[in-house]
Amino acid sequence: MLLALTATTAAADPLDEFGFGSGAAGVAGARTATARGAEAAHHNPAGVALGVHPELLLGWGYGAMQLEINGRDARVLDVRGTSIGLAVPFTLDDDWTLGTGIALYLPDQFLARLQLIPSNEPHFVLLDNDPHRAVVEPVAAVAYRGKVALGAGASVLANARSNKILFDVGIVGGEKVGAAELDVELPVRLAPLVGLWAQPHPRVRAGLTYRGKLALDLALDILANVQIAGVVTGDVLVSLRASNYFTPARVSGGVAIDVLPDLTLAADVTVNRWSTYPAAADLAVLIALDIAPPLVSSTVPPSAFTDTVDGELGIEYRNRGRRTDVTVRAGGAWRPSPVPPQVGLTSWADGDRLVLTAGGGLTLADWAPILTRPIDFDLALQWHHVAHQLTQKQIDTFPGEAFSSGGNIFHAGLSATVRF
Amino acid sequence: MAASLVNPAGLARSGGKRLTLGAQGAFSNLHINDRRTDLSEPAGGVFGLTAPAPLGGALAGRIHVGLGMYVLPGSIARIVARYPDEPFYPYYQGRTERLVIVPGVGVRVTSRFEVGVAANFMAGLGGALQASEGSTRALDARVDEKVPAVARVIAGAAWRPLDALRVGLVFRQRFEVPFATRAETEVAGEPIDLDLRASGQFSPSQLVAGVAWLTSAATVSADVTFARWSAYPGPFVEVKSELPLVGPLAGELPTVPWKDTFGGKLGVEAPLGDAVILRGGYAFETSPVPAEQPGVTNLLDGPRHTIAAGVGLVHTRVKGKRVRLDLHLQTQIVQGRTLRKTVFAPGEDGDGFDGLRDEVTDNANDPATQGAQISNPGFPRIDSGGQVFAGGLTMEVEL
Hints:
The complex is a heterodimer of chains A (420) and B (399). Chain A is mostly beta strands. Helices cover 3% and strands 62% of the residues of chain A.
């Protein structure tokens, strides 16, 4: 018997959704042109060579997923997890600086979750699972005179793959016995990260980043060999193929202008290639063995996601004190949905998103002799509004009910950046 | 960097900001009878970072943080659980194929006493698949497989009662990578359920005590280690099933009496001029695998002797940064063993570990069924032993 399942859920990087560190979160993630040090490991890898001292960023965030389907709680798991960033610059000479760094995000509940829900059951295809995965992004960069920098690295994820899962059932000494062997692997998957940064004018910075597409694929093949002579012989294969956390290739461009010495405006534009989102569920059952039930199979139409263009805008004001600096931030973003109208068999809920953010920070800039280097403490609050919409099916072609969806996400985060 | 894993208290003495990069690998010359057997992931990369906390005043230089990593070229982890009768070396095969991430912190409490703690991180895999025919006769499938984080503690202390004497104590918590999945399917009214559980990359709880004698001519150090292998659940997969026409059936696993192990290490490190350090050492460890395995298992191992040598080139300057290169070579010699099998007498019952059963019931009309019919690959005997050769090169850069 062969049972084959293939399904996919889509997601973006959780750090794209809520920002890496509360400084970035407070300006809605508009950090492509301004990220330096540890937070640059995610927002623009070129920036890890722009710091002066090694930096460690530690943060924690919580998001309440208040999403609804048909007026009821959609039971989307709340988001909570720890961000860890590291940047280590090496000054080679007066002109050149090298840097290496890593961005980590570790959800509290698990590192990742592979979730497959029947595609005709209304659920949030993007927000159900996408904020719930670990992010690992090691990067390296080179900077010239602090004016131009180039960085590269990888976004790392793992597949889950069974090389072999065998269960043998037979007769030994007249008794039914079973024995099994198993070989399961978590092979690495990589997506390239590239970042470019430049400061063409003392008050103007610009950045450009590219990240390749990424996904976590699960392949489990469980084979049971049955050799009970006179009763039943043959095999049973349970084969599961699922792909989660599809993260599209994206290109981001950003510009930051210091309107005043202590006031910075930053804007990012991001193109997401959601159109490469793979086809959805493809299920089949091939029956053999002695029980001979019928063949069961289904074909689901392509997902037909569309490419999207996101925009983020942020403003940051710094008040420099004698020993302590204070920073105030605000931002907004518009994130259109890549999910097409769900008039057919699939019932994937999603909606265009408006994001508004606010934040603040304290920098213990000169607290010698207690501290030998500055430490930043940052707080950010975010409101994501997922537009409400009513989805109606083509009743003549596909059976299914209309459904409504929408809601809000409230996210808060704290982070500290320590320099060594 | 190595302090994160060996003794996190040592981080407190790391001094300054240092980055370590390197590679290490191993080659197996272990034998199963006359056949050589390989290691599945024999090489990997090493990364480490240590830095003092940016604190001044009374806390200046007292707290250091560190990160140690071992990275495989293409995989984060691999969980292998074998048939109970498969011959293999459980100490070497299935315990080294994983990414290692060990962040730690070391605190210098006084000028002579340091403590440290580190966490050994990894991920597992567990969950369920449920599938049955839905309203349209297509399969409705639900999958919820999680990759949970696994974290275990390494804690250590170091004390220097005399200028020339340093003693240390380390505890490493048991570590393993769990795998569990439950497949519950129903087609045409027939249940097909399989529930599998296994764990890989097992390391037992360990307690290590060490002493070092430091002179200007050399540093001599000795360690003793106790490892609680008796808590090892084994390298096998546990299965419960319900299959069409077969009914409920669970896989039969032998009860292996794993042995706690004791080990000792002796090392010498001596400077040769200002720029070279020579190192050498010997270690012995008892085997966790029972020496007598008359039944189904063919777990191969033996008492282990390790001989190691290394050289360090210190204070080389590259672009104004101090750089240290360390090279090491090691040979682990696994003493030879022979496992001999016992066949249960007709009617005799016992655990699968204690003996083999005749697999075919005797039929007076079929001469081929007479006597013991055994397919175990270790029957009637199996020989093991050999060597594992390892080496590595690391570069430590002062930041």
